[in-house]
Amino acid sequence: MRGSLAGLRIRERRKAIGLSQSALAQRAGISPSYLNLIEHNKRAIAGRVLLALARELDVPPASLSQEAELSMIAEMRTAAAEFTVVPAEVDVTEEFASRFPGWARLVGSLHRQVRDQRAASDALSDRLAHDPVLQANMHEMLTNITAIRSTAGILTSLDDVPAAQQRRFIENIHAESQRLSEVAQSLTAYFDEAASSDAPATSPDEELDRFLAARNHAFPDLEEPGPGTTVSTIIAEADDLAEPEARQRAARHLERYAADAAALPQRTFLRAVAETSGDVLALAGRFGVPLQQVMRRLMGLPGDAGGHGPYGGVRINAAGTTLMRKTLGAFTTPRHGAPCALWPLFTALAQPGRPTAQRVALPGGDLFDTVAVAEYEPRTGLSDWPRLTATMLVRAATSGAEEPLEIGTACRLCPRPACPARVEDPILGPVMAAVKKR
Amino acid sequence: MSKTVLIVEDEPNIVESLAFLLQRDGFTVRTISDGAAAMAELVRTAPDVVILDVMLPNVSGFDILSSIRGHDRFARLPVMMLTAKGQRRDRDRAEELGADIFVTKPFSNTEIVAEVRRLAERVA
Description:
The complex is a heterodimer.
Chain A: H1 6-16, H2 21-28, H3 32-39, H4 47-57, H5 61-64, H6 66-82, H7 93-99, H8 101-130, H9 132-157, H10 163-195, H11 204-214, H12 231-237, H13 244-263, H14 266-276, H15 280-287, H16 291-299, E1 312-317, E2 322-326, H17 344-350, E3 356-361, E4 367-376, E5 388-396, E6 405-406, H18 432-437
Parallel strand pairs in A: 3-6
Antiparallel strand pairs in A: 1-2, 1-5, 3-4, 4-5
Chain B: E1 4-8, H1 12-24, E2 28-32, H2 38-45, E3 49-53, H3 61-70, E4 79-83, H4 88-97, E5 101-104, H5 109-122
Parallel strand pairs in B: 1-2, 1-3, 3-4, 4-5
């Protein structure tokens, strides 16, 4: 009987508890010669005999069940066959699985995970290639581009186009380019929707993100101090916070929010925002509070913050880990991996206490005004190691002709070919070689 | 006598620029946007060259191409297929059904005119 470990395990367990073969056979109600065959893996066991042996050896029946073993061994063999780069000792798979069942299960389970993730990524790339919405939009875009290219080609290369026809062609180009921008917008909306779909959150971070985004980072119940709603009731009622860790983080976030609301009451703060046109430094000076506290308050203001917002932003620790994010239009932070190294946020981190204001441009052309600052968190004791965090506040650029700093979201999502800060190629095609040649 | 090109394409601005280019090059141009009416128009105009889009309302360009090739009169009529999908299998299918040339959008004006001229010259 190939592939069974039960025999080996029965023999080892029997010896460990000091039973002879005949004694065990007698207790289990089978003949000693039959037990001998079982122990040498020459007979399979199941049903009543399996239960009797498991009972006498005081082990869970599942540990002697061959089905689980066989599937575990098969899984390990498949793993070895699929990952030939690392040659495994396939001929001793059964012995290994018998001696180290925990490790064997781990190998099998890791292999299953790799296989499932491969299947998932295949399904995703398949979807990208065959998604009907993407296909229709691509077709529409190619059609618009064809009309524009052909018409523009006529206008630029031929001098004998009659005036009336010229005008018609220009109108056609205008109409086609308008349609093209509509298609581009609908594609952006489609991807946005896909990104915020009902797929389960994969980490406490993501759960907290969604919890905050769903409430637009504003908690009216925490604005008025009193016996009303408290942090714990908001958390208890939030059915979109499942993981205990996400609930803890949300509670910490809301406690800080409540403290900020007490220090900078909304009505007074909104008036000050109007008077200072949302100037972060002026606001911090007026209330005598840290800049980051003003930034957090601005991000939690309802609507368009009295015409000076809305505000988005991101807060990180000294290692660059995102602690909080609020997206604003095209300004988003990458969910996985590092953000663009050119963000003023990182410059701020290098100069604690020194705020910087910088207009930035995203690859799509969207302009934002940012204010970034790094500050030390309050210390509870002299032995506390100083903790540095940085926040970058973001709002849509409104006026002025200030030259923007060209940034991206993250290298993987950024099409700028000649960026000196690039560390990896974008998903949509290599540009690293082009950069290196320059 | 000038040669006739029939453009079967549903995107009016592409039709307009193609028609302009080909007329300027001395061709008589007929256009039709509905795939279902394409065969009737073909019989009526008896063109020397057909420019045929793959994605058409009602009937696909591939279906029209097989009708063209199934018709004794048009078995050797030069057909240029246009498509926004540059996919291998579309190209293979067009070749299999007997398209003379396959051009993917966005195309270059000079390429289109040169190819139509070349196809028209093959007609005696």
